[in-house]
Amino acid sequence: MGPGREFDLVRAMLLRWGEAAQGLGDDGAILDVPAGERLVVSTDSSVEHVHFRREWMSPAEIGYRAATAALSDLAAMAARPLGMLVAISTPVSWLDDIPGVADGVGEAASSQGCPIVGGDLSRSSELVLAVTVLGSAIAPARRSAVVAGDSIYVTGTLGGSALALEALERGESPDPEHWMRFAHPPARIREAQWLAANGAHAMIDISDGLASELGHLAAASGVELRIDAGRIPVVRGSTARGAATSSEEYELIVTSPVALDVAAFEREFGLRLTAIGRAHDADRPAVLAFRDDVRVDLGLGHDHFTS
Amino acid sequence: MGPGREFDLVRAMLLRWGEAAQGLGDDGAILDVPAGERLVVSTDSSVEHVHFRREWMSPAEIGYRAATAALSDLAAMAARPLGMLVAISTPVSWLDDIPGVADGVGEAASSQGCPIVGGDLSRSSELVLAVTVLGSAIAPARRSAVVAGDSIYVTGTLGGSALALEALERGESPDPEHWMRFAHPPARIREAQWLAANGAHAMIDISDGLASELGHLAAASGVELRIDAGRIPVVRGSTARGAATSSEEYELIVTSPVALDVAAFEREFGLRLTAIGRAHDADRPAVLAFRDDVRVDLGLGHDHFTS
């Protein structure tokens, strides 16, 4: 891929992105952070054979999912998107599909009102999409903000992503509901704004699975999180444990010192919001799950964290 | 590479970076853009076998060069660094060398006062370093700001990067001076500040080669750039054409409507600053090179641009 072909491909992507792409053409993009707000930035790579397989998803779905994984980190900080940069490293065998990948990236960005402001195109031996997102918030949500007494909530219904992946690995067609959760998860940007405005002060998004992310929250905040396993919102066909270990869900876990108005949230977004437990003081950070007051294992493998 | 090993590697990198790494631990990094300044952001991927070969450079040199390529885009916008994010996609065979790569990234970032604020670690089949840099400037320098009558300047001495690469490809040891230009080019961040403060209003950094970057400037500004080939600063052992086509030099091309104080610049930075030509009005963007008033080919292949 020489400069000519590279520039042709960049032009093709810009045409497809249309007004979703802004301010390209200099060595860097120029953005303005709203006065009084802080800048939030995150980068996330999606790698062929690790994060996706060509035979499982369309190019647009691969691009959509890579961009959503990055946007979800903005949601987890309760930040509004300012812009996205997309570094694509591609083998020659993918060149004809890159415009499709760009369509998916553009769809995810546009659906969240996020302009594409920059990028980079390289050759490689397998497709790597490194997506960087920038956003802003007056007070970004943190993992370390959980306080004893907080109620713990989770958005949506979990477990579909894992069930779809398991079906694909068996060579079967996933249930359409599970497939949508796997191939087309939305980043919860607007939901996070609402939750932050209504009292939630700690957040994390579910990329590694509910149980694992609860562990990150507990470790960062130095608290013990007690979860009612029976309250975990489970997709049809899954279990509490399946839901707790399903990765790349891109739903949010939030904690709040005040009770959140679940009915108002569900009316606003058509999405479940479920209280699943409470934070407690503890000598060591921990996540403990109970069903009818009996300890159960959510599949985390260990319940204590040292860092 | 499971989460355990991944987290261990991240911890190892953080230890090596020490105070150079700041604010990690949330889904995104939180930064503040100085009041009255604009945010500048750029992303740049370095891919094994394309941008570097393991047998040619140490892990630290590979990391240093990847970070410098990104930092150089901040220099080209005359921006001060705010932070860097490093997305590493690595094969298992590179795992033991990732701390060395991290050392090089950290050295490049620290030398420019740029904290490392975030990153991402994935598995892959070849090493890909996607480096995103954020900076700020009151008035970022642009490619499109060249005006007829501007003098064109270039920093440093060109051609060493290409000569080093050619020696490596022949299986020979490069001349040490050329090798330093190839393996250890500094991003011209502070030089760009000085140049912008003293009158330079258009800038670009040399990643694709002087001739090619002049073409980008001409196209973005809609001007004709006339270059005196005899004035191009050439490294010992190279030629004007060799210097004009040598890529990944990371020197700056700047244009200014006022004469720059070359002696003051060279005293300040111990680095050459050379006037190599002038911008002119033109019906079509172009780069023309002359030696003793005779047109010469700088190796660009074509002199006119349509976009």
Low-confidence sequence ranges of chain A: 301-307
Distance between the termini of chain A: 45 Å
Overall pLDDT level of chain A: 92
* Major β-sheet strand ordering of chain A: 7-9-6-10-8-11-12
**Biggest interchain interface, per-side counts:** A-B, 61 and 61 residues
Largest sheet of chain A: 7 strands, mixed
According to DSSP, the number of beta strands of chain A is 12
What letter string, H or E per element, gives the SSE order of chain A? HEEHEHEEEHHHEHEHEHEEE
Oligomer: homodimer
Q: What would you report as the Rg of chain A, rounded to the nearest angstrom?
A: 20 Å
Large-scale geometry of chain A: globular
Q: Which class best fits the helix and strand makeup of chain A?
A: alpha+beta
The share of residues in helices of chain A is 25-40%
Count up the helices of chain A: 9
Strand content of chain A: 25-35%
Main attributes of the structure:
homodimer; 307 residues; alpha+beta; seven-stranded mixed β-sheet; four-stranded mixed β-sheet; 33% helix; globular
Layout of strands and helices, then pairs:
Two copies of one chain form a homodimer.
Chain A: H1 3-17, E1 29-31, E2 38-47, H2 59-76, E3 80-90, H3 98-111, E4 116-123, E5 128-137, E6 151-155, H4 160-169, H5 176-183, H6 189-197, E7 202-205, H7 210-221, E8 224-228, H8 240-245, E9 252-256, H9 262-269, E10 273-280, E11 286-291, E12 294-296
Helix pairs in contact in A: 1-3, 2-3, 2-6, 4-5
